[in-house]
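Researcher: We're teaching a course module on how sequence relates to structure. For the next exercise, students receive a sequence and then see the predicted structure as tokens, so they can try to spot secondary structure elements on their own. Here is the exercise chain.
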Amino acid sequence: MKYEILILGEPASGKSNFLRMLAYKWTLADSAVKQIKTPSMLLDQDIFEGFVVDRTQSDYKSGTWDLKFENQEINIELPEYNGEEFLDITQHANWTIEWNERIINSKGIVLMIPVDKDEVYDLAKPCEQQVETKKFEKKDAENIVGSDFNYIRFFQQVALLKKISRKEVKKIPLVIIMNFWDKLDKTSINITPEDRLESVLPWFYNFIMSNWDKEYIQVYGASPLGSLAESLRVRDKYPEDPSKKISDARQKFLRNLQKQSWVVTNDNPTIKNYDLSIPFIWMFKRLGN
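Model: And here is the predicted structure for the students to work with:
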């Protein structure tokens, strides 16, 4: 079967590094998901030298991910685009033909939302160049995808394009990943991913939980790069004379690469699952139903 899955996320939501680490995890012998053919954009070798993936380039438009799961072959189309492009469509009702087709053809949606909506950092930049984005400044709130109403508007448009009645519960497999969960992990806050979604986007949370079939929506917390994320750099921005913190982070990251990425569930939010496949396996079991 061939399924098209939309991987969505605002700028600096961690989509590129999540997918790259997922591709790495699926190469491991104990992975439940096996890769038959991997998009070239996910074969970047920098991760094996302790460098993170640079932000998605504009020329990365699509890729086919051929996978095998439970003796079934799954061919996933992964449209690639900058987070700014997703940001743009949430702010406008008139979408391009390309985006309309993406929505109509998609069989599942993965939405990545940073756990800290007040602070979003571009990990591809050195610390001194990172820019803090204030998400809830009143004058800009309606123009930022992080606001509840932009997300609500987007999913209303999804239902419209898929010709699903407003009164009908939606049965499109939807995974919401609260990304950079390591930021919460550092503070030892014992909350579930679903709790966090409700706290940062209460209107959107109520909308999506009221309109989606409970069997077709799941919220996870994830950390694609672990607690060392903010000290890692892309290759071409790695300083010639790195600080001890940056140098140590790179070495620690490489020392135990298999356990740098993890997922938490609503049932056990304090337990780190070192298998980024968990959200996708949940979705695979619902595709085509």
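Model: If you want an answer key for the exercise: The longest strand covers residues 106-114. Strands lie at 2-9, 33-37, 64-69, 72-77, 106-114, 174-179, 217-223, 262-264.
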